[in-house]
Amino acid sequence: MQCVGRERRLVDYYEGSGVGLDHYAQVLHDKRIQHGWKYGDHYFPHDIKVRELSSGISRVQSLAALGIEATPVPQSNVLDGINVTRRMLGRTWIDGNRCERGIEALRQYRREYDDKLKDWRRNPLHDFTSHGADALRTFACGYYEPTIGNVFRRRPPAPPRGTHWSQ
Question: What domains can you pick out in the chain, each with its CATH number?
Fold first, then answer.
């Protein structure tokens, strides 16, 4: 994710399963070397602060030992987060090749239908799509957008009379 003014750019997407934090740290390192990327903040769900029972170390501490400073995002209402993400997507450019799997997850992200009640359930269906969508929602809810000061733009001068613009 790149933030350029109010525009958001999804430049790459990666997901894995059944691997440890060290794997993801290595992926970030390799991408930094391969593409010359510089990383800013890394946003994680609120529960990253939880300590592991076996070691007593939190995932935040584990990531710090791997060279990644984690920014926990406070827990919020899922539906509010979805709305924040929807608003952000209107000003987001997505790399169609590098983010293909993430785009597919967003396209198929949906609520579950309750056959018994013949209505949609309130929260999204938890399946393969929810991981990518939740990651984007975590960023959208956690990124602090600095207030852009009032920028007064000078109105362009009116076109001269008699041109096609004034007819």
Answer: 2-142 (3.30.420)
